[in-house]
Write a structure and sequence with these properties.
Beta-Lactamase, alpha+beta, 323 residues
Amino acid sequence: MRSPAPAKGRSLPDAMSSTPNRSNSSGWWRPCGGCSRTASDVIGRRRSYMTKRRKKGTSSAAAGARRPAPRRAHGRGGPNAEKKKIALLRRELNEARQQQAATADVLKVISRSTFDLQTVLDTLVESASRLCNADHAWLFQREGESFRWVSSFGHAAEVRARLRDYFKPLKVPVDRGSITGRVALEGSVVHVPDVLADPDYTWTGAQEIAGYRAALGAPLLRKGDVVGVIFVAKTAPQPFTAKQIELVTTFADQAVIAIENTRLLNELRDSLQQQTATADMLNVISRSTFDLQAVLDALVHSAAPLCAAECAFIFRLEWAGPL
């Protein structure tokens, strides 16, 4: 039997000269538990185990040093979701810029066209149609108990001309048969994704000409009263978005401002004309104390334009009987 090698670090004088007595408990070896392994075997296995662990630790450290830094985790859904989110934000930003530009253009038209209300209304319906991706846009003004068509915009010139001819002689009543009448009746925004599926909608003449399906109407409110209606429509039965509804409402408010400014300016102009005409007549009377004909001529010349009349007359009663 081969003699076990002595453990390092211990003084064993007779380790190489004689075979150790396994029964001698004071010898340099000692049984490990109840097995036949010696202490040198255990020590050798322990050294081998520690050497392997040191090598493994060194390899792991080197591998860790070579491992690339982890990539930053994307949000839920990965990089594609991030790209979609960025595209959505860009689209919303472009829409906001277009709306601001259209609003600025309308305000410029309002400021420049002080007495030209028709130009302002035409600009409003055109901007509403383009920004809402609509195929048609109309504007109605109130006249007594009904509404009159005053402006329209459409991508097809032929259809636009037919609608103009259709609406000119008509008066839209205040009822639920049309979007305009329904808006005037309720005094609020009316949104119908498909007019053909609405049992209350009976305004089929305009629908057959324009071919629209989705319709949106916003009221022009002045002191709580509906003075007009903006109507936009699409040929596809698709509802308008919340932003588009808000945009049409904003244009309706701007139309009210334009109409009110024009009304006030016209009233001021009429008042100034009346004051000027009165002053002119007083001057004629003061200068023509004994010339009655000159005074009467000045009166009829001033009365005709102030009353928007084509002509004016003054008649005197000639009495032939006794006084």
